[in-house]
Amino acid sequence: MTLKGEFSPPGDKSVSHRVVLMSLLADGKVEVENLSRCTDVKSSMAAAAELGAKISQNGDLYLIEGTGDELSRSAYLDCGNSGTTIRLLCGILAGAPGRFVLDGDDSLRRRPMERVAEPLRAMGAVIRCRYGKCPVEVSGATLRGTSLELSVPSAQVKSAVLLAACRGFGPTSIVQTVETRDHTERLLELMGSRVLKSGQTMMVGPSRLRLPARVRVPGDPSSAAFFLCGAAMVPGSEITARGVMLNPTRNGFLEVMRRMGADLKVARDDSGHEPEGSVTVRYTPRLKGCRVRSEEIPGMVDEIPILALLASTARGETVFQGVGELRVKESDRLSMIQRQLGRLNAGVSVEGDDLVVRGPSRLRYGRTLDSGGDHRIAMTLRMASLLTKGQPEIQGEDSVNVSYPGFHRHLEMLRGRSTSREMAGQGACIG
Questions:
Q1: Containing domain of residue 277, as a range?
Q2: Taking all residues of the chain, what is their mean pLDDT, rounded to a whole number?
Q3: Gap between the Cα atoms of 108 and 104, Å rounded
Q4: Catalytic: 398?
Q5: Cis status of the peptide bond prior to 360, with omega within 30 of 0
Q6: Per annotation, catalytic residue among 302, 354, 370, 374
Q7: How far does CA 351 lie from the centroid of its chain?
Q8: 158 domain-assigned
Q9: Closest alpha carbon to 297 in 330, 256, 245
Q10: Per-residue pLDDT band at 430 (split at 50, 70, 90)
């Protein structure tokens, strides 16, 4: 059951969120190519429209008209399952006149919100969380520039502070001891702001943003990772991901694959505001375990489930250090990885905040598996089924639409069960 051929992953979810939400602080109009159409980004689009942004679709392009910082004065915003939506909105609305309530589904209501509320309060924001979680109430306040050291290495928290700083009085400096994805900084500079960086510190001041005429969203590396890891572990496979983002703050999983001995080649294009290119991976019969340090984790936090599966096919021990943050994702991913891969006979254990995988394991068919409604666990378990004799039922598998609506179509194409022509007719990256 090999994987063969080429595919283009859907538009990057993180960049798509930011282009949509940052229009709430900007003047002008932007044509967006390859915007992600996953459920999470639709939550951001609905919230932006509720607050006054105008969003329309013309074929494969989206046209977004910014609000010029003139937002609705009150709104109840349903952020669905999207942590990025709710946390970035906290930063955007912290300095906006009015009162706003941000809420979400049962999964989002379990995720911590004080981590973003606390630094915003240090800028003067008025934010109330229910028992440290959502619903979150934001009452617009006068913000002041300040100096902050982020206690949690989170791009969402950093982005919320950066976006709040655009409305603040005076510059805001942020110290991040661990580097996180930098899409917000890149888009701020594209929209006319200046983000000054020196070592671990960055500074941004009050900014009037303007949308660029056009933005292309590169392919999502976190989505591509499932099939790239699949090609490395399924005998006889060779696939190429086209147009995938190659931002160094997002490509930690490729470095781990190289460390395990995977056969991969990268062709890079740096002409856009985000680097992108193609990645080709061939099956590697003798993968080896490796150690992944805690400071590397933010660059691959969404890929840990599929990397754990890959590690189960490698010889020796693979240790992912300091991955406790996985406990507060859409599910407790640490427990889900241990339990569900364990049901397939993988040697997986959790030791404190470390995830340990011992291989190689001969994965065996499990009749029913449970994703816990977590999209990345669901896709990992479906990729695991390529290494077993049976095709298990995966409870909550429709959660893949949260990030990758075309996942199953791409899987069928790469397994040779549908042609590229048929895929093109359906829209390869469209949910």
A1: 221-402
A2: 93
A3: 5
A4: no
A5: yes
A6: 302
A7: 25
A8: yes
A9: 256
A10: very low
